[in-house]
Amino acid sequence: RHGCEGSLMMPHTLCRHHLQASLDVRFPLPFVVPVRTKKRFFVPPSTKIKAKMTASQDQEANTRAAGFVIRQEYMERSINIACTAGVFDPYIPPEGDARLSSLSREGLKQRTQQIKQGAASQLAIRKIKEHDPEFTAKSFAVKAQEIFVEAHDSLTQFNKEKLHSLVTERCYPEMVRGNRYKTLRWRFVESLEPPKVVHARCPDMVTKGNLYGQVTVRMHSRQTLAIYDRFGRLMMGSEEEPRDVLEYLVLERHLINPYGMWRLHGKIVPAWAPAKEPVVKTIMIPGPELKPGEEFEELNYEVPKPKAVQWHK
Amino acid sequence: MATSVMSRGGQITYCTYYFTCYSCRLFAFHKPQQHFIHTSVSLDVNKNWDRKNLQVFPPQQPGEAQRPAEVHHCRRQIKYSKDKMWYLAKMIRGMTIDEALTQLQFNDKKGAKIMKEVILEAQEMAVRNHNVEYKSNLYVAESFSNKGKYLKRIRYHGRGMCGVMDKVHCHYFVKLVEGPPPKVEQKTGFDQAKEYVEQLKSRTIIHSL
Asked: Which UniProt key words apply to this protein (chain A) (predicted)?
C-alpha cells in the first residue's frame, strides 16, 4: 500500500491519498476524520499523560539550571500590508469639468487652474521621482490608462491572480463584491482626451519612512458596460450603446519596496456627478412606519434623495 | 525553528525543535497535543441542492425568451418524520408562493410552521441575491422531503425485550421559480372515458385480412 499506517484512530480508506480525488473537486471537502466514540474500559498505559508532563517539567528545570535561556515563543504570524486603507487628501475635481469648451471664458479659467497644479502635488511628484527615477507625468498617465483597461478586462474574465497584481487589496473587494455569479461585459471603445495626472500625494503610514505614493489621473473616455445576472438576463447597461465617462482614478505604489508596482487604488466620484442609471427591475424602498389607522397616500411621503457629496470608491 | 511530523502508533503529534546560534539540537519539548485535524460526525452530507444556486448561465441573446429565475433552498435535519412532511410537500406543489404560505400558516401540523419559514427564507434570498423582481411572482416548482440522519435509542418492550427506537429527522427541499405557475390540464371523467373508447376503437388484429 502507499506507506500510510492503518491504525485504530484512522482507518486506511480515509487516509489522505484516498481523499485526494475529493480534494480535486470544485468545492473540496475539508480533511475531516471521524472519531470513534466507543467507550474504552481498558486504557493502555501509554495514554497516561501525567508521567509525560512531569518528565517535561523536569527537563525544563534542568535546562534552566544548566543556563540555557530560550527566548519566549510568540504565537504570531506576520502580515504584509501592501496598500493603504484609503485615499489621503483626495483631489476635489472642479465643477463642470469636461462640460465647458476651452473657448469660453469659464473654460479658459478652468484650464489655467488645472495647469498650475498645487504645490503639494509637485513636491509629491518630486518625492516619487527619488524612489522611481523613470517616473514622468505624461508617461505615467498613459500607463495608468493601460492598467485601468487591463484590470477591467481581467475582471470580466475574472482572472484573480492578474487582478490582484493590477489592483490593490483595498480596491479588489469593491470591484469584485456581488459580481461572483454575474456576467460582466465591458469594452473600452476609445479615449476622448489624453489622460492627465492631476494630483499626487505621498503619505507615510505608521513609521516615518514608510512611503506610499498616490497619484490621481483624470480620464475622459468612451466605454460600454452590460451586467447580466445569474440567468443571463440583462440587469444594467447595454452592450451596443457606448457612454462618455469622465473618471478620476487613484493609483498607488509602495515606494520603499523596490518590487512595488503601480496599482489601481480607487476612484474619486465628484459631488456634481450625474446620478447613475437605474437598474432594469423595480425595487422596493422601505417606507415610513404607519400607525394603525393612517394611510400612506395621505402622508405625502417623499423618497429621500442622497446628499451630493464627493466620495471616493 | 523546525517542525516535524512524527506518527507514533497512529497518533499524530507535532514536535518543535529549537536551534541556537551554535546550530546544535538542544531539547525537544512536547507542546500540549495540537491535533490539526477536524473531527466531526458526518462526512458524507450531500450538498448538491445548495450548489444548484451557484450555477451561472451564459447571457441570453435579445431575441430569446427570458429564462425564469430559480431559487433552490433546503433545511436539514428537521425533527419531524419524512412521511408526515411528504403530505405537506405534496400539498403545496404547483401553488403560487402566497397561496402556499397561507395554506401552511393555517395548517395544524408541526411541519407546516417549519416549511413556511423555509419558503420565506427562500423568497428573501430570491429578491436579494438572485435578481427576482416581484416577490409574489414566484411559484413552487419542486417540493419534497427525504430522510435525514436518525438517532438510535433503546425502546423497552415487555418481558425484558428491547427494540431500536429511531429518533427521526428529515430534510426538506424547495425550488421556487419566477413567473405564473404552469396550468395543469384538468381532465374530466367524460374526457377520460372518450379517450378509453377511442383507444379500444383503434385496436387492430395483427396478421388479419
From this structure: Mitochondrion, Ribonucleoprotein, Ribosomal protein, Transit peptide
Residue A71 φ/ψ, nearest 5 degrees: -65, 145
Nearest to A230 among B51, B131, B133 (CB): B131
Indicate yes or no: CB of A7 within 8 angstroms of CB of B37. no
Helix (H, G, I), strand (E, B) or coil at A64: helix
pLDDT at A47: 61
Considering only the beta carbons, identify the residue of A5, A32, A229 that sits closest to B40.
Answer: A32
Q: How far apart are CA A30 and CA B43, in angstroms?
A: 9
Percentage helix, strand, coil for chain B under 3-state DSSP, each rounded to 5:
30, 30, 40
Distance between CA A106 and CA A120 in Å, rounded?
25
- Domains in chain A, start-ordered, CATH in brackets? 105-268 (3.10.450.240)
**pLDDT per residue as tens digits for the range A202-258:** 988 878 888 899 999 999 999 999 999 999 999 999 999 999 999 999 999 999 888
Q: How many inter-chain contacts (A to B, CB under 8 Å) are there?
A: 82
pTM for this prediction: 0.71
Are the Cβ atoms of B41 and A34 closer than 8 angstroms?
yes
Nine-digit cell string for B147 = 430522510
Angstroms from B41 CA to nearest CA on chain A = 6
The alpha carbon torsion through A214, A215, A218, A221 (nearest 10 deg) reads: -80
In sequence order, which residues have a C-beta less than 8 Å from that of residue B125 and are 6 or more positions away?
Answer: B71, B73
**8 Å CB contact of A228 and B37:** no
Q: Shortest CB distance from B9 goes to which of A7, A68, A181?
A: A7
